[in-house]
Structure formats: structure tokens, C-alpha cells
Design goal:
about 475 residues, alpha+beta, 2,3-Dihydroxybiphenyl 1,2-Dioxygenase, domain 1, 2 domains, three-stranded mixed β-sheet, 19 helices, 14 strands, about 45% helix, oxidoreductase, YdcJ_bac-like, 2-oxoadipate dioxygenase/decarboxylase, dioxygenase
């Protein structure tokens, strides 16, 4: 049997190979990421692996796909369920983007710590909100939903194999090979001609809507390696003549602990596509929808930590408005220096970051009673805190990446009331629960605290 995590690792590797063939600049991105990671490891030693082993970081990828209907999203869940991946988190990019991005999203990923360590492959998956009248009037919505209902993204054989893999926690080798072949093919760019008039009709509303509902297939929209120094990666890619987007999304570079997620990308490329004209003839055109993204992951933040992060972003926006000529990153660093804890220990002691806790081998042995709070246990050397890596995404950053790679702003009618979508709605659309990332991090931290309490005789005190 080929286990689910082995299927996941193989799928991620094959998807990366396929995307590199289709988008050669992505291969350059992977190569430069590897070079940067090796240099950081040489310079920082074991400290470079504080948020994951170099083996994990080098192999790590996240992909992004877009689908049009709840039925398609449910099928995506079956395919990724075969790989031991679950929907985690709800992201409303309609509200996070200034331009027209009519999607809500979730991320399929492993949730168990051991599974994440084996292979943390994630796929950020966006669903077109066809019922939102801010983007689609009644006539266009009807035409769009009719178009989407008439296509098939995933062949029945792939879905049947996916259901078997999920039920049996893996597949025999021959079936595994067939599953992987069909799964990778499902996300390749289709050579089928694009209906030019229909595509452009949707593109006037939103380039994202056209990419989802203007074609008969889905495809990998971008694939993302992980890097240990994203600022250095940005410099090296620019030096190689690769056009990057204007900014690195997320927290600024600073001397304190890395938190959450920083992302950037090279700009979407003009790719030749066959286009079917109104008279039925086929010509060659170009579409700009796919790009290569790169990420640097930091420490997961608690609810309080995220609230502090959001307040800091608001302060940065305020400072940018007050000082229009000053670099945003420079202003952000000043805000971070003033408002965020400067050490991991402070993050942990203030309950702002998620950590696993472990009894220190060199803890006090003088017979004294250990203190009953995490802050004091850390301060006095009774326990050590290991940061939990942020495994999820940031709506504003995702929207910023999307916006930076759009060919136009699109249109939205803000006089209309948007259709309400939330985690419960998305769970119903997928046909399985969308998990709360905070609950997953809390489970990891609480499990470690329970173990510390048992070892130190503090049962019922720590929590």
C-alpha cells in the first residue's frame, strides 16, 4: 500500500515538475529558493531550522486552484481527502480586495503534527461567488451557472480512486500510480480553445472570474516554495531579470520573531492560448493568469496575537497615509518595533503566539515547587517553548497577491448588498466541516501543556 502521506508527497512533487514545464520561471524560483535556503542554513546553523527542518522547508509547497461551483468544490475535497488533506479556514477575498475578486476560499492541508512534518502540502482553493449581485447581474449569473454546470473538471475514475484512498488510507501501487497520473492531469493547463467573447465578457467583471468561469477546466494558478529569507530571494530574482510584484505581502522584515506569513511572487506572464472567435475560427491569443509565488512562514498567533497584528496593520496604513513618500516597509518596521514583542519568550508569556511546551532537561533540581504560570515556568527555566509554525493564510495578503497579478481592476456594484458567506455556508458547500485553524493550534499547545503538567505535578493548574 502507498499511504496517504506518500500519495501527498508524490502528488506535490509531480505537480511541481508539471508546473515547471508549463511555467519555466517557476523552476527558476525553486532554484533560487533552494540556493537562499542553503546559504541561510550555512550562516545561521541550527537556528535556521527553528521553524522546520531544512528537509521539510525545501520540499514544502502550496498550490492554488479556483473552481466555479459547490459541486466542483466538493469533488476537490474528495481528491485532496485521498491525500489526507482537510479544509481549514475561511477566507473572504471579496472583502479583502480593493479590486473585483469575487471568491471565497479555504485551504486543504494536513492537520496532524506528524503528518505536517512528513509533508505539509497545502492547496489554497477559491470558489466563485456567482450569486453575489455586486459582480453578476441576473442574466450573467444564469449564463455563468449554465456554463459551469456543463463542464467536468475531474473524471469519475479519479474520484472513485480518491474515495478508495480516503477509505482505505492509501492505495495499492498500481492504483496509486493511476490516481496520481489522473490527479496531476486534472490540474494541467488545457489546450482546448477559449471562447474569446465569453472570456472577455467575464473579464470585464473580474479577471479572476474569467479564469474560473471562462474555460472548461481548472488548472494550477500558482505554486509556492518556502524560503528562509524572502527579502534575499526577492533581490536575487530581480537580479536575474524576473519581474516581481511591487511588495512583499504580510509582516515587515524586522529583528524580532517572524510571525504568520510573508509572501511575494513574480508577475503573471503572458501565456499563448488558443482562442475561438465568434465565427468559429481559432486564433492564438495570450492570457495573464498564472504566476509563481514564494512564502516565508513564521509563528502562528493566538486570537489575541492576531488582534494585535491587525491593529498594527491599521497603524501602518495610517502611517502610510500620513507619509506618502516614505517606504511602507520602513514605516511598518517602526510600528512593529513599538508594538510587537521582541522575543519568542514574550510572545509565549503574553499568550500571543502558539507554542508547544516541554519540560527542560536542565530545570531546577533544588526541590522547589515549580511556578503555576507559563510565563514564570519559562522565566525560571522549568520549561522550553517550541514555536508552532503558521500553516494557514492571510486574506489581505492573498488578495494583495491576486490584485498584483490582475490585468485590470474589474468592476463591482457596491450599491448592491453582497451575498453572505461564512464558514458554515462553506462547510455545507463542500459537504464536510471547514476546520478552525485556531482550534488546531490550541489542540497542539494544550496537548503539550497537559504533558508538562503531568511531568511537573501541576495537573489542573496549567491550561
Amino acid at each position: 500500500m502507498i499511504s496517504q502521506w506518500q500519495l501527498r508527497a508524490a502528488f506535490a512533487a509531480r505537480l511541481s515538475d508539471m508546473y515547471g514545464r508549463e511555467v519555466p520561471a517557476y523552476t527558476t524560483l525553486v532554484d533560487v529558493s533552494r540556493e537562499v535556503n542553503e546559504d541561510v542554513l550555512r550562516a545561521r546553523g541550527s537556528d535556521a531550522e527553528r521553524l522546520g527542518s531544512i528537509g521539510r522547508v525545501t520540499a514544502e509547497r502550496h498550490g492554488a486552484i479556483r473552481v466555479g461551483t459547490p459541486q466542483e468544490l466538493g469533488q476537490v475535497a474528495r481528491v485532496f481527502g485521498a491525500l489526507g488533506m482537510h479544509p481549514v479556514g475561511f477566507y473572504d477575498l471579496r472583502e479583502a480586495a480593493a479590486s473585483a475578486v469575487p471568491v471565497v476560499s479555504t485551504a486543504f492541508r494536513p492537520v496532524d503534527g506528524e503528518e505536517l512534518a512528513r509533508n505539509p502540502f497545502r492547496v489554497f482553493t477559491s470558489l466563485l461567488t456567482t450569486a453575489d449581485p455586486r459582480f453578476f447581474d441576473a442574466d450573467l449569473r444564469s449564463r455563468l451557472e449554465t456554463f459551469l454546470a456543463g463542464r467536468e473538471l475531474f473524471p469519475p475514475e479519479l474520484l472513485a480512486l480518491a474515495d478508495r484512498a480516503a477509505a482505505e488510507h492509501g492505495l495499492p501501487e498500481e492504483d496509486a500510480e493511476r490516481f496520481l497520473s489522473l490527479a496531476v492531469s486534472a490540474f494541467e493547463l488545457s489546450p482546448e480553445p477559449v471562447d474569446k467573447v465569453w472570456y472577455e465578457t467575464l473579464e470585464r467583471i473580474s479577471a479572476v472570474a474569467a479564469d474560473i468561469g471562462g474555460v472548461h477546466s481548472t488548472h494550477i494558478n500558482h505554486l509556492t516554495p518556502r524560503v528562509l529569507d524572502i527579502d534575499e530571494l526577492y533581490r536575487r530574482m530581480t537580479d536575474r531579470g524576473i519581474q516581481m510584484i511591487d511588495t512583499i505581502q504580510g509582516p515587515p522584515a524586522w529583528k524580532g520573531p517572524d510571525v504568520l506569513l510573508r509572501q511575494t511572487s513574480f508577475r503573471a506572464l503572458d501565456e499563448p492560448r488558443a482562442m475561438r472567435l465568434a465565427d468559429g475560427s481559432v486564433t492564438t491569443g495570450a492570457l495573464r493568469v498564472r504566476f509563481g509565488e514564494v512564502e516565508a512562514r513564521g509563528i502562528a498567533l493566538t486570537h489575541d496575537g492576531r488582534a494585535l497584528y491587525d491593529r498594527a496593520l491599521t497603524l501602518v496604513d495610517h502611517e502610510v497615509a500620513r507619509h506618502p513618500g516614505v517606504d511602507r516597509g520602513e514605516l511598518a518596521r517602526g510600528v512593529w518595533e513599538e508594538h510587537l514583542p521582541h522575543t519568542e519568550r514574550e510572545l509565549a508569556a503574553q499568550g500571543l503566539g502558539w507554542f508547544t511546551y516541554h519540560v527542560a532537561p536542565d530545570r531546577p533540581r533544588d526541590g522547589s515547587r515549580p511556578p503555576a504560570t507559563i510565563g514564570e515556568l519559562l522565566e525560571r527555566g522549568w520549561v522550553r517553548a517550541e514555536p508552532i509554525v503558521y500553516e494557514d493564510f492571510l486574506p489581505r495578503s492573498a488578495a494583495g497577491i491576486f490584485q498584483s497579478n490582475l490585468s485590470g481592476e474589474g468592476v463591482r456594484d457596491n450599491g448592491q448588498e453582497g451575498t453572505a458567506h461564512d464558514t458554515a455556508w462553506l462547510s455545507g458547500a463542500i459537504g464536510r466541516d471547514v476546520l478552525d485553524p485556531f482550534a488546531l493550534y490550541a489542540r497542539q499547545q494544550n496537548g503539550s501543556l497537559a504533558q508538562v503538567a503531568r511531568e511537573l505535578g501541576l495537573d489542573g493548574v496549567l491550561g
